[in-house]
């Protein structure tokens, strides 16, 4: 049913219906923003990247073939946008500590945990990292990840298992449930 609604919204957006465009943005902006944030670690950069994703989506709307889900197409654009961002930047951003100076002790501890996990995820090989971000942080289903990355479901399962192993080793965790 979701797929049919998205298909109809795309059809309306192609016809110039601004409300349909707005509905697509409202529906997918939070997940695409979160995806970009997990790759850029900067809220302003994530906002810019997310806007770039939707700009590319709407500018190529007439070329979009409705073979798959709109969400998968947006994630594909987001992945390419993030890769281009890093090609231009040629560095991996680090979160500035000054952003957290006025936080409470609890927030600081949570930030430290998040930074530790982000650092561990950054150390994963690229293809495993992408799968891990989509699975653990974006909470996509394994089948959706396979469709999105154009790989077999068995490879997705392998990469998730491998990511768990590597993250456990990096974070010195005893079992999967702690990740």
Strands, count: 0
- For the termini, the CA-CA separation is 33 Å
Mean pLDDT: 78
**Fraction of helical residues:** over 70%
Poorly predicted runs of 5 or more residues: 91-104
| Assembly level | single chain
Textual characterization of the structure:
With 179 residues, the protein is mainly α. The protein has eight helices and no strands. The chain has helices spanning 2-14, 18-40, 43-59, 70-89, 105-122, 126-137, 142-149, 153-171. Helix 1 (2-14) crosses helix 2 (18-40), helix 2 (18-40) crosses helix 3 (43-59) and helix 4 (70-89) crosses helix 7 (142-149). The chain is globular, with a radius of gyration of 18 Å. Mean pLDDT is 78; it is low at 91-104.
Give the helices and strands, then pairings.
Elements: H1 2-14, H2 18-40, H3 43-59, H4 70-89, H5 105-122, H6 126-137, H7 142-149, H8 153-171
Helix pairs in contact: 1-2, 2-3, 2-4, 3-4, 4-7, 5-8, 6-8, 7-8
Give short descriptive properties of this protein.
179 residues; mainly alpha; 8 helices; 0% strand; globular
Entry summary:
The chain is mainly alpha-helical and 179 residues long.
